[in-house]
Structures are given as C-alpha cells and as structure tokens.
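Please decode residue identities from the backbone states below.
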C-alpha cells in the first residue's frame, strides 16, 4: 500500500499587479502573508497576531483568496 499525501492548493491573486501565487500544502493565511511578503520584498509584514486572528476563519483546502480580502475582514 502506498502512502498518499494530501495536496492542498491555495491560489493568491494580487489584483493590483496582476500576479498569481500558488502555494501547495499550506494554510490560506500563511499563503496570503507569504504572497504579501514576496510583493513587498520584506519580512516585516509577518505578524503572528495577524495569523492567529485570521487562521480560525480560513479553512484548509483548495481555495482562492485576494490580497485585498485581508483588509475587508
């Protein structure tokens, strides 16, 4: 019997710059923070309180998130 790994894909759309980031096997909020970091080229945007605040609202699984969604929550 082979072990099957669960693959979850999170796509983050940067609507302002027309860029799409694809993350595999990560939580949505971690993918969102990583995409913002890549856009801004800085690690200072990683905020643990922010992750704790939103992690419970975002489910694991295939989903699409806009960077702008973070501001609406």
């Amino acid at each position: 019997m082979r072990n099957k790994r669960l693959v979850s894909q999170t796509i983050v759309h940067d609507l302002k710059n027309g860029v799409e980031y694809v993350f595999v096997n990560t939580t949505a909020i971690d993918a969102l923070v990583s995409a913002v970091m890549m856009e801004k080229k800085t690690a200072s945007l990683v905020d643990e309180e922010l992750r704790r605040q939103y992690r419970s609202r975002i489910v694991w699984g295939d989903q699409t998130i806009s960077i702008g969604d973070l501001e609406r929550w």
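Observation: The first strand starts at residue 9 and ends at 14.
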